[in-house]
Amino acid sequence: MTFLAIDVGNTRLKWAQYASPQPGAGLIAQGAVFLETIDHLAETDWKNLAPPTSMLGCVVAGEGVKRRVEEQLELWDLEPRWVVSSREAAGVTNGYDHPNRLGVDRWVAMIGARHRVLAQGRPRPVLVVMVGTAVTVDAVDASGHFLGGLILPGFGLMLRALEMGTAGLKAPTGEAVDFPTNTSDALMSGGADALAGAVERMYRKLRARTGEEPALVMSGGAAVKLAPITELPFETVDTLIFDGLLELQSRRTAL
């Protein structure tokens, strides 16, 4: 009853194989590849995997990339199944004006974060921050209702925009510091503070809206860059989207 979870982002495909399609299932294998190399998964990373019984994935990279992944899944007799954002799933309700237009990675991450908070004790609001090519900051109240969220450019997009639009500025190799005294540190610190400020501002709004301290959960490949900046208590969860996929698949299996 092994289960394959797939997260196809804008830059990389991440995958994980679990012993069963249940939250908390044992991790058998995992990996990540850049989208440019996904056409070789069947003959490289996935070649020696035990055939999974089921799979569920989320993809934001477009239909062409999804078809390429499905071609690699032909290695096994496995029906590809992909999450679509909906009005409700796994106890989370979607407050987007058009629920099906919400990015599916955001939707699955919120489901994962919601159930992570529930597993820790009482229901409470949660702020879900995904730090990747773009940064999303999504607010969920204690009842599991998605209130709304922000989309910002990630570190790389910010820095490239400055490099293209400003004479003499180059993408830095600097660090985020309190009082930058060189251009590289000034660029990196400006990007980090902009993102941290958005997170902290949304945190205060969610706290004011719900009347209690939210949990702050951060994930994504570039979360490590933001983690040292925010002054709020937070938890970094690398597997947040996989946690959401496991939760969703467990409910499919139970039907």
Automatic annotation (TrEMBL):
Pfam families assigned to the protein according to its UniProt record, in alphabetical order: Pan_kinase (PF03309)
Single GO cellular component term: cytoplasm
GO molecular function terms attached to this record: ATP binding; pantothenate kinase activity
Catalytic reaction(s) noted: (R)-pantothenate + ATP = (R)-4'-phosphopantothenate + ADP + H(+)
Main enzyme class: transferase
Co-factor binding details: A monovalent cation. Ammonium or potassium.
Gene3D superfamilies: 3.30.420.40
Subcellular localization(s) per the UniProt record: Cytoplasm
Keyword Metal-binding set for record: no
Listed pathway(s): Cofactor biosynthesis; coenzyme A biosynthesis; CoA from (R)-pantothenate: step 1/5
Annotated InterPro entries: ATPase_NBD, Type_III_PanK
Keywords in alphabetical order: ATP-binding, Coenzyme A biosynthesis, Cytoplasm, Kinase, Nucleotide-binding, Potassium, Transferase
Residues noted as binding ATP in the record, renumbered to the chain: 7-14, 133
Superkingdom: Bacteria
Known cofactor(s): NH4(+); K(+)
Enzyme nomenclature, EC number: 2.7.1.33
Binding site for substrate: 96, 103-106, 183
Family of the protein in this entry: Belongs to the type III pantothenate kinase family.
Subunit details: Homodimer.
Function: Catalyzes the phosphorylation of pantothenate (Pan), the first step in CoA biosynthesis.
Protein name as it appears in the record: Type III pantothenate kinase
Record gene name: coaX
